[in-house]
Amino acid sequence: MRPNLPSHRRENAELNGVSGTTTFQCADVFDLLPALEAKGEQFDVVILDPPAFTKSRSSVKNAIRKGYREINIRGLRLVKDGGYFATCSCSHFMTPELFTKAIQEAARRRPPPPAPDRIPHPGSRPSDSVGGG
To answer: 13, 26, 88, 90: which is the annotated catalytic residue?
Structure first.
């Protein structure tokens, strides 16, 4: 975790006039997301930008199952209906295809399913980057 990042984001929110409507948290997602879900919290926008869950090709499957899929299931449950969800992967070994598959599996486990205008068109081309930044 990089605890200095939320302060930069707060400064940007202030510069853009949205500081009163935004919150930023830097925490262990495996602790924070279940706690927010248990409290019934929901947000207009949820952005997940975790550290790399895999640093080797041999651990990719485990990273998908225990890392990316889990946090995205929980993150999606925190998005208000009509809200926005962004998620990232900075792992060199997480290919766009594997990342997309993990997100699709997480979305299938989120009740209710995403609104039709939030589902990518089957013919759309994913970006060359799986990161958010």
So the answer is: 90
